[in-house]
Each structure stands twice: as C-alpha cells, then as structure tokens.
From TrEMBL:
Record-linked InterPro entries: Anit_sigma_mycothiol_RsrA, Znf_put
NCBIfam families reported for this sequence: antisig_RsrA (TIGR03988)
Residue span of region Disordered: 83-102
Record domain Putative zinc-finger: where: 11-44
Native source species: Actinacidiphila acidipaludis
Pfam families: zf-HC2
Gene encoding the protein: rsrA
Ranges of biased composition (kind: Low complexity): 86-102
Superkingdom, natural source: Bacteria
Protein name: Mycothiol system anti-sigma-R factor
Length: 102
C-alpha cells in the first residue's frame, strides 16, 4: 500500500512494522519516524487506527482468558526452533467438518 506521495519513511516499511510500533517494541527514533509518517500519510494513519482498534477489542474481549499450558509450551517450542534455524513443521489444522460440535 502506498498513498502515492514520497515520504522519508516508505509506506511499506511503516505497514510492515506496524505491530512493532503498536506494541512499543521500537526505538524512540523509529517511533518518531513513524509518528512523522502518520502526520503526513492519511492512508497509513487510517490503517494504524484500524489495527489499534482491533488490538484494543481483542484485549477487551480476550485479555482475561488464561492461555492453556500446552498451547503456551507449543508456541514457546516453535519460537525456539525458529530461533535455532531448524525447520519448523506446519501446524495442524482442523477443517470445519472435523471440528467438534458444541
């Protein structure tokens, strides 16, 4: 996505690192570049606002749910495999016909 205007920080870079910005996982210098970009670029500002609203909604609806222990351990194991450079098997998926009925 690009608004068509030239910016110091390209729209694709901003959108590619949007969750790092939302999660405060960037340096202050990088955050300042992103804030400047949002001041100049309405489409990216809209995308930021949408993603921020979704993040707040998910937190409000699911933020108090406990993560199952086995899920947490599986996620941590996959993270360690990725960090070590090992190949990571594709996660198992359940098709709608296999899903248990409630």
């Amino acid at each position: 996505m690009s608004c068509g205007n030239a910016h110091e920080t390209d729209c694709s870079e901003v959108l590619g690192h949007l969750y790092e910005y939302l999660d405060n996982e960037m340096s202050e210098d990088a955050c300042a570049k992103f804030r400047q970009h949002f001041d100049e670029c309405h489409p990216c500002l809209e995308k930021y606002g949408l993603e921020q609203a979704v993040k707040k909604l998910v937190k409000r609806c699911c933020g108090s749910d406990d993560v199952p222990t086995d899920l947490r351990s599986k996620v941590m194991m996959r993270i360690e495999l990725i960090r070590s450079g090992e190949s990571v098997p594709e996660p198992e998926t359940v098709t709608p016909t296999e899903a248990p009925s409630a």
